Amino acid sequence: MNQLDQLKQYTTVVADTGDFETMRAFLPQDATTNPSLILKAVGKDAYKPLMQRVVEAHKYLAPPDVIDHLLIAFGGEILKIVPGRVSTEVDARLSFDTASTVAKAHQLIALYHAEGIEKDRILIKVASTWEGIRAVEMLEREGIHCNMTLMFGMPQAIEAAEAGATLISPFVGRITDWFKKAEGKDGYAPSEDPGVLFVRGVYAAFKKLGYPTQIMGASFRNVNQVLGLAGCDLLTISPDLLQKLTESDERVVPQLDDSWAQGQTVEPKIYDESKFRFEMNDDAMATEKLAEGIRTFASDAVKLEKMIASMQ
């Protein structure tokens, strides 16, 4: 078997793309999207007709509302390909507004429902701010399942699990990017990679402390990072790395499982808002990458709005 097929024996493989045509060959269980991926997809000729149809059908709506319909259009097409779930992201500009995040999640679920897609096939993606975690806590109580994204620090992970999030997405590659720049390194072995080590630490904490929240490693830069987390609950992988995994038949060795986790030393932690904010502030990497991620997603949402406005 190639490495992708081997990896699927230990981990649920998720496609990390808005380019749904490219995922057919890899047979992922789920798929994840974000504003940057959707913006990249609609720039391709293959997806321009889809965008034109959405804009024309909703030409009297404001561009931010058209974006919601565009997200659902992409999500619906993705769900024709994957048997599981698609993650659809709340506007990053709402990352510090609990009530608006909840309202937007309700809108997205309602739009999917109008297309005949039930909420059990949707994960609402929310940035892992304190306000976002509080929104997810409310949504999960309503039976709306959530994926906490832009995760870089243990306070985010633990608090998301305490809030009952269905899924969290630690950003492996972006963590490693920060340390490479800070330490002046070109790269790391998987056993020393900061992003890989962070996800391993979260995995150990969740399994040992009994949190049911699933962990989905995200934002990979190379195949070694992916294979360094073989055995994680889920891994969301870009099409180019999925392709590389199909081109190798080298053995995949699982790195994570429950027995490994039980052998790790884990210190239970409980956060209130003050402690959460202090520990995040004390972690320069987590603070900087969270802020940068929110800015980037928000900026790409604005670019999408301008593109839509030019077509109306």
List the helices and strands and how they pair.
Layout: H1 3-7, E1 12-16, E2 30-32, H2 35-42, H3 48-57, H4 63-79, E3 86-89, H5 98-114, E4 122-127, H6 130-141, E5 146-151, H7 154-162, E6 167-170, H8 172-183, H9 194-209, E7 214-217, H10 223-227, E8 234-237, H11 239-246, H12 258-262, H13 273-282, H14 284-311
Parallel strand pairs: 1-2, 1-8, 2-3, 3-4, 4-5, 5-6, 6-7, 7-8
Helix pairs in contact: 3-4, 4-5, 4-14, 5-6, 7-9, 8-9
General description of the model:
An 8-stranded parallel barrel has the order 1-2-3-4-5-6-7-8, surrounded by 7 helices. It is built from 14 helices and 8 strands. The chain has one domain: Alpha-Beta Barrel (TIM Barrel). It has 312 residues and is an alpha/beta fold. The longest helix has 28 residues. The chain is globular, with a radius of gyration of 19 Å.
Primary descriptors:
alpha/beta; 312 residues; TIM Barrel; 8 strands; 52% helix; eight-stranded parallel β-barrel; 12% strand; single chain
